[in-house]
Amino acid sequence: MDRRLVDPGNLVGSGGNSTVLAQINQIDPIYVYFNISDLDLARLLKVTRGIPGPTDGRKWPVHAGLPNEDGYPHQGYLDFAAINLTTTTGTLLMRGVLPNADGKILPGLYTRVRVPLEQRSALLVPEVAVGHDQQGAYLLVVNDKNVVERRPVTTGAAVESRRVIATGLTGGEWVVVNGLLKAAPGRPVTPEREGAPGPEARPRFRRRRRRRDLQVLHRAPDLRQRHRPRHRHHRGCSSTGCPSLSIPRSCRRPSR
Questions:
Q1: Residue numbers in the chain where pLDDT is lower than 50
Q2: What are the tens digits of pLDDT across the range 66-79?
Q3: Are residues 104 and 167 in the same domain?
Q4: Is the full-model pTM beyond 0.85?
Q5: Is the dihedral of CA 130, 135, 141, 147 positive or negative?
Q6: What is d(CA 238, CA 194) in angstroms, rounded to the nearest whole number?
Q7: For the chain, what is the domain count?
């Protein structure tokens, strides 16, 4: 039950007009309404031999999924179908019944609906591998000589991220699914199976930088003296050192 539209104590039903007091919705089970085209109706009649309805004991399944869900997790059955098509759109109104015990499906939500007609084996390819041009749908396959070829195909229904291929494939072809821009018809290629482990990657050798330790070389006094300017001896020079130099050295008077 939704919120009330009239407060207690208000006058209702005056002047012969009916007043809506509140809105009541049934959410378990919940109905889902959808329209099918005249082409889909012809496929449905071919399999069901009639329009499914309340008197049909087979209960044709209906799968539904919300926009934020993957696939069609909600399963129900067909409950009602209109007796005539809408002339402006050429569609037929149908209704399905879905269990909704947890209340995840609210009235007014949009949903995706799928009605399976039959179960059969079919070849499926990724949707990205199917190309379209003026000649129709096609696939790029690799022949036994590793050359790319264009193969016209007839597509069927979509199953999640894959497409049913009705005609054009036998089941033993190599279908190009990656690098379609580089795989032009007539070009030789080197095919690799999708998902197969590739060649082992070469080990990467990390270049180790040689560390250069800075070593401070303490030179002996006699070695450092060679880089100092030569000076004239004076009276203050002695055998222990020269007061004008900070480095001790032995000064000798030149012999005459």
A1: 199-220, 223-227, 239, 245-251
A2: 988 888 899 999 88
A3: no
A4: no
A5: negative
A6: 92
A7: 2
What residues pair up with 94 in beta bridges, in sequence order? 34, 81
What gap in Å lies between CA 79 and CA 73, rounded to an integer?
Answer: 19
Q: How many residues does the chain have?
A: 256
Comparing C-alpha atoms, which of 61, 39, 38, 41 is closest to residue 51?
41
How far, in Å, CA of 81 to CA of 247, rounded?
A: 114
Give the tens place of pLDDT for each residue, 19-29: 788 888 888 89
Query: Mind listing the pLDDT tens digit for each residue in 149-190?
Result: 999 999 988 887 889 998 888 888 889 988 888 888 888 888
CA 209, 214, 216 angle in degrees (round to 5)? 170
Domain that holds residue 101: 26-114
pLDDT in the model for residue 3: 79
> How are strands ordered across the β-sheet holding 112-114?
30-37, 91-98, 74-81, 61-65, 112-114
CATH number at residue 85: 2.40.30.170
Q: Is 152 helix (H, G, I), strand (E, B) or coil?
A: strand
165 and 127 assigned to the same domain: yes
Q: Is residue 237 part of a domain?
A: no
Hey, what are 239's tokens?
């055998």
